[in-house]
Amino acid sequence: MLDSKNSAPPPDLRILPIDAISPHETHDSQRSEPLLEILREAEYLTNPPIVAPIGDGSYVVMDGANRYHCFRELGYRHLLVQVVDYKSEFVGLGVWNHIISDWDEDIFAQHLYEIPEATIKKAWDSNAVAQIMLKNGSVLSLDAPAATIEERNFTLRHLVSIYQANAKLSRTALHDPTLIWPQFPAAIALVIFPEYEPQDIIEAALNNAFLPPGVSRHIIHGRALKLYYPFEKLLDMSVSLDEKNAVLQDWIREKLANRGARYYAESTYQFDE
């Protein structure tokens, strides 16, 4: 069996019409608003959004919803992306859990009971839409209609909107609160989300049944980072899309020929976000 972590191919980088790309989740205003101001002044694209083809020349954003949102806000018509296939062995799909910090635990719990068509159980329920582990040791299960992706994602968007507007939201792949609380002393709760399949992501995009921000977690072996590709090459509308892609491919070949790209197989932590 191919070891995808050690054998990822070069990234498939393309410039696409932004109208051919659809998100599968809402953007995170806590991240997108400061990012928008940074991108207004930026000269280079560093980390391209990652998209997957979904047929008929359309693509879904797998990773980079906030960047995609910002580029739309800035009026970009073309966007440099990394294209990956959901069927590839180099792609995995998991979830991020949410750490809620800098808020009152009791007030947060009260808001949970106001979610439409939802009930709260004071116990773990593996069939619930989401689980909430409070720092005081209590466990709450959020039960709500979830027969369709639209129903489940509606409830999850409402849940996340509660603390997104009132608290600090951090993401984690961890489930064990004993590992989380020491790292986040101001945390009040950990929200654990259900698993998704690739088809769920595609249906969310096609049906505008968006996930809340920061829930889907795509693991891409061979992810392209730190490109520093000039924005002026994307913004120049006197150049056709085909010409822009030809220039991009020449740029990539030159980078590879001059050892301007390096592959890391290890899992990493980045401290420049």
Plain-language structure description:
- Strand 4 (50-55) and strand 5 (58-63) form a beta hairpin.
- This protein is 30% helix and 25% strand.
- With 273 residues, the chain is α+β, with helices and mostly antiparallel strands.
- It starts with 11 loop residues before the first strand and ends in a 16-residue tail after the last helix.
- Helix 1 (29-41) packs across helix 2.
- The radius of gyration is 20 Å and the shape is elongated.
- The strands form 4 sheets. A 6-stranded antiparallel beta sheet has the order 9-11-10-13-8-12, covered by helices on one side. A 5-stranded mixed beta sheet has the order 1-6-4-5-2. A two-stranded antiparallel sheet has the order 3-15.
- It is built from 8 helices and 15 strands.
- It has helices at 29-41, 65-73, 105-112, 149-164, 177-180, 198-206, 231-235, 241-257; strands spanning 12-17, 21-22, 44-45, 50-55, 58-63, 78-83, 91-95, 97-101, 119-121, 130-134, 139-143, 168-172, 187-192, 216-220, 229-230.
- It folds into 2 domains: 4-93 and 218-257, Conserved hypothetical protein from pyrococcus furiosus pfu- 392566-001, ParB domain; 97-192, Conserved hypothetical protein from pyrococcus furiosus pfu- 392566-001, domain 2, CATH 3.30.1760.
- The model has no long low-confidence stretch (mean pLDDT 92).
| Weakly predicted, low-confidence segments | none
Class based on secondary structure composition and strand pairing: alpha+beta
As for the CATH topology of the largest domain, it is: Conserved hypothetical protein from pyrococcus furiosus pfu- 392566-001, ParB domain
The profile of the biggest β sheet is: 6 strands, antiparallel
Write the H/E string, N to C: EEHEEEHEEEHEEEHEHEHEEHH
Shape: elongated
Full CATH superfamily name of the largest domain? Conserved hypothetical protein from pyrococcus furiosus pfu- 392566-001, ParB domain
- The assigned CATH architecture of the largest domain is Alpha-Beta Complex
Describe the strand arrangement of the main beta sheet, using strand numbers: 9-11-10-13-8-12
Tell me the count of domains: 2
CATH class of the largest domain equals: Alpha Beta
- Contiguous helical run count: 8
Average predicted confidence as pLDDT: 92
**For the CA atoms, what is the radius of gyration?**
20 Å
**N-to-C span:** 34 Å
> How much strand?
25-35%
* Count of individual beta strands: 15
What share of the residues lie within helices? Answer: 25-40%
